[in-house]
Design brief:
- This protein is of the alpha/beta class.
- The protein has 11 helices and 8 strands.
- Helix 3 packs across helix 5 and helix 6 crosses helix 10.
- The model has no long low-confidence stretch (mean pLDDT about 95).
- InterPro entries: Iso_Racemase_Enz_sf, MaiA/AMDase.
- This is Asp/Glu/hydantoin racemase.
């Protein structure tokens, strides 16, 4: 009998998308379960009160609750270091492990690991974010040599509302960046109902799509020693990377 693997996922309190999608991703792995802990996030913006939502102290408390379940790894399923700076997630993972003894990863650190593995120099971003948040993400990726200038965003900030963005709208955004020449696309927000659509986009446009709900699950499973090649229907990253 395979060793039971428990994946712990940190969730923005207003997110209603990532939990069901994360569960569906691991449905093909009978020895794996996924468990969630929330902390308060309402709005995505660059104002001081919005940035304060991602104070590590509150996130560590949520991580400690996951550690009570003896999880094998803790993943932050969120993209905040995209605008805060990648070092924010690096520091968060160090603090989670120091506080719980459990290895940690994040959606963005996992995405950046994939970008490096795949040799990506240009990556199109599909997000719901405001202009200033999107610009901050593009600037941060430029610091690691990734050009994200070909992008689409919806100028929204209400985190709970991201779940109401239709698949048709996401289809339009992906189609637009592909028309602009995109070969690698990141759906860069764990509040978008997009991970289940990745296979469709990849097959239709012959592209690679790195959805941030999926990236943290990919890395958490790899850290736990799970063969992700058994996950079919959720994108190339599980099968080929």
């Amino acid at each position: 009998m395979s060793k039971r693997i428990r994946i712990g996922i940190l969730t923005p309190s207003s997110n209603t998308v990532l939990e069901p999608l994360s569960q569906k991703i691991i449905d093909q792995l009978p020895e794996v379960s996924v468990h969630f802990s929330r902390f308060t996030v309402h709005r995505i913006a660059l104002s001081s009160d919005a940035l304060a939502q991602f104070d590590n102290t509150k996130i560590i408390e949520a991580a400690k609750l996951l550690a009570d379940a003896y999880v094998d790894v803790i993943g932050w399923s969120g993209t905040s270091s995209g605008w805060l700076g990648f070092e924010q997630d690096e520091k968060l993972c160090e603090e989670i492990t120091a506080a719980t003894g459990v290895p940690a990863t994040t959606s963005v650190l996992a995405l950046n690991k994939l970008v490096k593995k795949l040799g990506v120099e240009k990556m199109s971003l599909v997000t719901p974010y405001t202009d200033d948040v999107q610009e901050a993400i593009i600037r941060n990726y430029a610091t690691i040599g990734v050009d994200c200038d070909l992008e689409r965003h919806l100028r929204q900030s209400h985190n709970a509302g991201f779940a109401d963005i239709s698949v048709a709208t996401l289809d339009d955004m992906v189609r637009e960046v592909v028309k602009g020449g995109a070969k690698h696309v990141s759906v860069f927000c764990t509040g978008l109902k997009a991970a289940q659509r990745v296979d469709f986009w990849e097959e239709k446009y012959n592209i690679c799509v790195l959805d941030t709900v999926a990236t943290v699950m990919w890395d958490a499973l790899r850290i736990s020693g799970v063969d992700t090649g058994r996950i079919v229907g959720w994108g190339k990253l599980f099968q080929e990377v």
